[in-house]
Amino acid sequence: MSSQHPHKTPGMSRRELLKTGLAAGVTLSAFPFAQPPTAWGAEAGQPRRGGLLRVRGYEPVHFDPHLTVSFKTHTTLSFVYNKLVRHKVGADVPPGTFIVEPDLAERWEELDDTTYVFSLRQGVKWHNKPPLNGRELVAEDVKFTYDRFLREQGNPNRYILDSIDQIEVVDRYTVKFFLKEPYVWFVNALAYSSSMWIIAPEMVQQFGDLKKPEAAIGTGPFLLERHEPNVKTIFRRNPDYFRQGQPYVDGVEWLVLDDESTGLAMYRTGQLDCGPAGNWSVRQQDLEALQKSHPHLVYRDFLSQTTQAIMMRTDMAPFNDVRVRRAISHAIDRQALIEAVWGRGAPTAAVSRGLVEWSLPIDQLGVGAKYYQYDPKESRRLLAEAGFPKGFKTQLTATPGYGRDLVDDVQLVQRFLKDVGIEAELKLQEFGAYAATTQQGKFEGLVRGPFGIAWEPDAPLYRAYAADSSWNTGHVSDPKLTAMLKEQRRTKDLEARKKIIFEIQRYVADQQYYVYLNSITITGSWQPYVKNFAPQHSFDYGNRVAALWLER
Q: What is the pTM of this model?
């Protein structure tokens, strides 16, 4: 795997590039993305039991999976809970590949376009902690989970399963879902590692909600043993886990490491078993030095499935004018952002380049492709045409909760906007507040942030643009677009569906409801004694950890 760093402008450091904002007209060449090897997993050998895995984790905003979209909550809960179905894990699964397989359901059947039957594994036990005390998982638990998912008005992910009409318990181990209309992504959605965790009714009855760590009792590979706020969460092996032999490690220390230099120092000295950055990776800016000093570590590149974007209130002036949105897109030098801040990556549109099968390259976006070109002169012309010859003032929100690279990025975006006359006042928001407000469309002006993670194309498109989506951050209301989104959800033929999804990407590239920027390159890294592991841009750390073992 290539570890070379991207070309840098002679005589200019990353900090200098950020400070100067990259003078208008300077466009740097993108570093070519290094393709992963054909076989991701080295020969793992036989599983070995024991050991404690120490990794970078997060402090949850709280522990209720139905009341937040925060990745910090869902990654933590992934150790404790299961879903009906999951994405396959293991060293042989390349990043960006999401194969749906059984989890709590041992099989499922599609009776017709709107009826699905799931047969549960028998003998699956809830964690042996009160009030559940190891009782068996049954179909009533599944019905309770999804009834609550749909009933909770504060559930920002409710829109994902709005197609459910009713849920019926057929018998102790069988549950049937009736949909209001065809939704071809239904089983895929149940595999999302966000909000789809199966919960027990006793926990809600006891606590009212599931926000306290004591409420996190599931069927998953690990039991939550101790939570130390803003320090770490300790998980221990579930001895009654239904996957034979798993998990192989005895426990996990899920460490809150918001200071990136501390995390890197711990990884260098062997105090962490996997990379210290998000997705257990190494920041591109730290990669070259680490590879020189620690060549024995494993390094693997892959493209993120999260699209970096500028969001705006399209229901309010001036962003309800397509000329203003196009002007903003022309104002941003995407290649310069990659070079100056992220190191490597690829310019991207509505579907991240990490989902290669479903993502259109910029040059295939039709008439909308031109708006991805850095052209400040055309940007100023469009602003003048829209009635803003001297630009305008607005607010630009971001959060340091995604790391210092995004903070550097938003400052450079601010400079690009200023160059065309848009004075954007920067507002840095604490992550919890950002997740509860800005991320759900409660903001003014502009927002610079990642626009959600995608495990298939329906999620980033429907949540961003559908009129009935509760995560329509930009408040987009476009009947033509909503109709296309619903059409692809009804289209069973894969090639026909792909054509509609490509058409959607071309349409939104022309409308620029969101100004998409890039998909960043992630370099996953781990100690050589960590076996049967491959990185993945997913919240499901728990299943990946349950399948790995330590040879040390």
A: 0.86
